[in-house]
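Comment thread on ticket #2218

A.B. wrote:
> Attaching the input chain for the structure job we discussed in standup.
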Amino acid sequence: MNNRVIWESTTQKKVKDIDKFAEEYIDFISTGKTERECCDLGVTMLEEAGYVELSKLIKAGKKLKAGDKVYTTQMNKSIAAFHIGKKPLEEGLNILGAHIDSPRLDVKQNPLYEDGGFALFDTHYYGGVKKYQWVTIPLAIHGVVVKKDGTIVEINIGEDEDDPVFFVSDLLIHLAQKQMEKKASEVIEGEALDIIIGNMPLKASKDEDKKEAVKKNILKLLKSEYDIEEGDFESAELEVVPAGRAREAGIDRSMILGYGHDDRVCAYPSIRALIDMDATPERTSCAILVDKEEIGSVGATGMRSKFFPNAVAEIINLSTDNYSDILLNRCMANSYMLSSDVNAGFDPTYADKFEKKNASYLGNGMALIKFTGSRGKSGSNDANAEYIAKLRKVLDEDKVIYQTAELGKVDVGGGGTIAYILALYGMNVIDCGVAVLNMHAPWEAISKADLYETYLGYKSFLKKIGND
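C.D. wrote:
> Ran it. Output below, let me know if you need it in another format.
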């Protein structure tokens, strides 16, 4: 069975390659802390690599041919990019699919209030979080405020060294006897995850003007700095995330500690693998980065939307004079996909939650997860053995180090990805990504070596799978 440690067999040149790729990834996740920011970064990367926006080609009526590179976005939150291959599209695509949303706190639509001399933002947590992990840590606010005239105001406060940061308060241990008796899920309630954003009142000469003076001061500052008013929060998307850059971790610098590894640690190597293809592929290669996975892949920007099949339909339409739905159906059914998503890394502190023979280990390479779901594989995509055999052959040919894994012991719990959604089209899909420690915490940990090996595995997949 595969149980190889990358660091034990790697060359000095590869160590340098691992470190360089890790530096570039750290820049990516430190800058892209929301799905909008990741989408913007992805578009920049694609355009620098010669990819052209699909809508421009549709408007010009330009036909696609082998070697062409094209991308499209959905509401600035999801991306689908294609490198057109030599084979007809009805023979299928090679797809890397990841998500770029991560657990966080979302600012509510009527958020600003004053209490006890503090100005606060009311929040609603997004995705599966342990609420107690989000108190007393430095937080930043990222997002957009869209005014009634259509003006978009971008917000990013808390990342620069000179920026202020925000925080959720917690009860001091001296008064927390009752709190400490609660279950972990109840220690901090959802409605208590309000962030403190100010404490300075606006100076006023009249007593009636002193009411909610801290809130008024915040509104004055927001008007002065961003030209936004309280009502503009109704059409805002503001996300509260951990402040600060991702960092190398460990005395040996072998790991990366950062926010949003789930699932940007798979999204980044996915888009890089597509961009870095050095020749026209045999089969059309695709990377899709989507939103809303953490809350069920719903909405117009989630994987359940028609965004991706609509994009593929447009690609087929620009590649042939005889478009039909049957061509789209054949294309989707004949495709191969890696659902590029993370897996739980073995944690020796909580070893009893893992089955060691089938756990993924940091430093042991790209993780192949045949099935996800929970307990009796509920909600799972369960990949076909024939497809896994093809994938093993490709990875072994290119000497990619990989491991097979599941998400914890059978009766402990489980999780899901976007794999089952694409499998509905009849295509072969398997989950494949990086092992993560502290998954869904404000700061997660991964191995640099796994990150780079996954990138190599994704490149091999795009280049070779389905060419036999």
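A.B. wrote:
> Thanks. Noting for the ticket: The chain has 13 helices and 22 strands.
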